[in-house]
């Protein structure tokens, strides 16, 4: 057996050992599964190359050759899938795209296994240790090259994209070296051992060596940047699932990390410079003093948690954001960067504005209700005045006087408080109506009421008792004072000449007045029937008025309440 065949076996053992090391030291995630699939496919090539040399059975030799190239056919799809995970593009990979990714590799593998008419491989010297390749071999090679070219395009796009984080760029750059190493050794194997096999001796293990060296590049990336570290992956997932925008800045205000939600708040990428003053100038802040205070705290880099609310125009709508800033400190409390967060509070502000508008509407309705209550109260007052007031003379009417005296007279008797009643009647009023008409008669009533009102005290209650009769209630008034007030009223009415119109000239009237004074409480008891007692008072003052008319009118007469008649 050629000692060189052990070369492939040793490479197989090394690859197996590397795989076991990664499996033991890393926790299983989706990325782990992709890598181990890729690693297993890489291991199959050197193992099968070694196994072919262990047997003289052409059938087994063919089996190992086909198994090796099936693994190689699928290796391209595994490489592309791992590339998508390393560059962070795997999130865009739907189930249908994942199936399409493996279709060319599966087609190539099916052609390798079928090997129709020896279009893939044919034996030389009765076995497959030395073999010749047919057209399907080049089809498989084209599929592999296509996978590698697509991987290169994805990696170069990630390297030169401004949106790719710096750490991922470094990972991709190292992985590219692995691709170049594998491509170089695979190309040498194809050229030396396939194209030039007629003229040059077979050099085994070139592709196996390229696979091993490229895998070392992958392992370096995995361990150097903790690609498989579950805690780091979990931290990244947590940050990316937070609905707040997060920006991490270094001490020079260069963005070193952004989460997915940040694109809804600010259009910034890793590697961009962040200028807080420029940012605040481009948004609306209701309180500029607060903005200056926030900017000063940000520049001071002290261990202070600062925040400010800003308004930004997005999609023709104003959105409210809470911007929070806190410095990142090292173990000795030296600032080494910033942590900025952006929280959308537009919905909360909308609810607050809605509540404010509702409160304003409620206040307006309450004010309207207050106005309505005031208007209703005023209307009730006016209605009560209409009910208790004579509409012509604006004096209280007889109903009001009765209601008022029904209670007050009994109180006066209880507390022995003197009071008087005065009943007035316009002399010859019927003649005035007959001579001048009812319109002039009404005018006479109004002017007479005004003259009487101007002659009595503010505490006296003037009422229109009947047609041309008026009654005045005089509280706290004894007989002598009542006579004095009555004479003052009589003279005021007598001297009040009323101009009715240009043709008639003026009219002068007189009044007859009856007075009843209650001031001697020696024989007065508080009656049980207040209404009946009030009728007695009215009857007594009416008799006094009748005496004044009988004695010639335009005079004052004093009446007496009959005792013992209740």
Number of domains: 3
Structural class computed from helices and strand pairing: alpha+beta
CATH architecture of the largest domain: Up-down Bundle
- CATH homologous superfamily grouping of the largest domain: Rhodopsin 7-helix transmembrane proteins
Provide the gyration radius in Å. 58 Å
Largest sheet: spatial strand order: 8-10-11-9-14-15
Q: What is the CATH topology of the largest domain?
A: Rhopdopsin 7-helix transmembrane proteins
Counting DSSP E segments of at least 2 residues, the number of strands comes to 15
Task: Please supply descriptive tags for the structure shown above.
single chain, 566 residues, alpha+beta, Rhopdopsin 7-helix transmembrane proteins, Beta-Lactamase, Alpha-Beta Plaits, 6-stranded mixed β-sheet, 16 helices, 57% helix
What does this structure look like?
The protein is of the alpha+beta class and 566 residues long. The protein folds into three domains: 224 residues, Rhopdopsin 7-helix transmembrane proteins (Up-down Bundle); 106 residues, Beta-Lactamase (2-Layer Sandwich), CATH 3.30.450.20; 161 residues, Reverse transcriptase/Diguanylate cyclase domain (Alpha-Beta Plaits, 2-Layer Sandwich). The protein contains 16 helices and 15 strands. The strands form four sheets. It has a six-stranded mixed sheet, sandwiched between helices. It has a five-stranded antiparallel sheet with strand order 4-3-7-6-5. Strands 1-2 form a two-stranded antiparallel sheet. A hairpin with a 2-residue loop joins strand 1 and strand 2. Helix 2 packs antiparallel against helix 3 and helix 2 packs antiparallel against helix 7. It is rod-shaped, with a radius of gyration of 58 Å. The N and C termini lie far apart (155 Å). The mean pLDDT is 82. This is Diguanylate cyclase. One of its GO terms (cellular component) is plasma membrane. Keywords: Coiled coil, Membrane, Transmembrane, Transmembrane helix. One of its GO terms (molecular function) is diguanylate cyclase activity. InterPro entries: Diguanylate_Cyclase, GGDEF_dom, HisKA_7TM, Nucleotide_cyclase, Rev_trsase/Diguanyl_cyclase.
């Amino acid at each position: 057996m050629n000692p060189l065949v052990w070369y492939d076996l040793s490479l197989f053992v090394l690859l197996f050992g590397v795989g076991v090391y990664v499996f033991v030291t890393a926790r299983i995630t989706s990325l782990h599964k992709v890598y181990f699939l890729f690693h297993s496919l890489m291991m199959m090539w050197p193992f099968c190359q070694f196994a072919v040399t262990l047997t003289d059975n052409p059938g087994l030799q063919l089996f190992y050759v086909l198994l090796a190239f099936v693994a190689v056919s699928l290796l391209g799809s595994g490489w592309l899938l791992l590339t998508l995970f390393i560059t962070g593009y795997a999130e865009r990979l739907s189930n249908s795209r994942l199936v399409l990714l493996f279709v060319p590799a599966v087609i190539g593998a099916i052609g390798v296994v079928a090997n129709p008419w020896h279009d893939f491989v044919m034996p030389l010297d009765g076995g497959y240790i030395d073999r010749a390749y047919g057209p399907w071999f080049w089809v498989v090679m084209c599929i592999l090259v296509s996978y590698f070219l697509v991987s290169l395009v994805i990696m170069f796009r990630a390297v030169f994209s401004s949106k790719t984080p710096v750490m991922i760029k470094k990972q991709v750059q190292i992985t590219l070296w692995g691709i170049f190493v594998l491509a170089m050794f695979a190309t040498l194997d194809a050229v030396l051992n396939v194209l030039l096999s007629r003229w040059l001796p077979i050099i085994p293990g070139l592709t196996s060596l390229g696979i091993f060296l490229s895998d070392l590049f992958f392992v370096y990336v995995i361990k150097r940047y903790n690609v498989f570290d579950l805690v780091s992956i979990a931290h990244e997932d947590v940050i990316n699932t937070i609905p707040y925008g997060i920006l991490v800045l270094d001490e020079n205000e260069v963005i070193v990390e952004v989460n997915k939600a940040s694109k809804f708040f600010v259009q910034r990428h890793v590697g961009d410079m962040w200028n807080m003053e420029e940012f605040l100038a481009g948004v609306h802040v209701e309180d500029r003093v607060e903005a200056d205070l926030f900017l000063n705290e940000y520049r001071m880099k002290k261990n202070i948690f600062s925040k400010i609310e800003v308004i930004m125009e997005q999609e023709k709508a104003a959105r409210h954001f809470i911007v929070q800033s806190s410095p990142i400190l090292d173990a000795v409390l030296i600032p080494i960067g910033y942590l900025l967060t952006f929280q959308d509070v537009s919905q909360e502000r909308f609810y607050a504005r809605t509540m404010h508008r509702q409160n304003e509407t409620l206040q307006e309705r309450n004010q309207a209700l207050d106005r309505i209550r005031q208007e209703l109260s005023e209307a009730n007052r006016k209605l009560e005045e209409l009910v208790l007031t004579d509409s012509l003379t604006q004096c209280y009417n007889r109903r009001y006087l009765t209601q008022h005296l029904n209670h007050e007279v009994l109180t006066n008797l209880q507390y022995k408080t003197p009071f008087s009643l005065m009943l007035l009647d316009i002399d010859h009023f019927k003649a005035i109506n007959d001579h001048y008409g009812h319109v002039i008669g009404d005018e006479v009533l109004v002017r007479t009421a005004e003259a009487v009102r101007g002659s009595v005290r503010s505490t006296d209650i003037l009422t229109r008792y009947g047609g041309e009769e008026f009654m005045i209630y005089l509280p706290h008034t004894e007989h002598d004072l009542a006579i004095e007030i009555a004479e003052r009223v009589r003279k005021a009415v007598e001297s009040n000449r009323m101009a009715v119109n240009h043709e008639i000239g003026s009219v002068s009237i007189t009044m007859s007045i009856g007075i009843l004074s209650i001031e001697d409480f020696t024989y007065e008891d508080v009656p049980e029937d207040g209404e009946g007692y009030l009728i007695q008072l009215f009857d007594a003052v009416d008799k006094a008025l009748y005496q004044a008319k009988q004695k010639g009118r335009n005079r004052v007469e004093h009446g007496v309440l009959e005792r013992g008649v209740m």
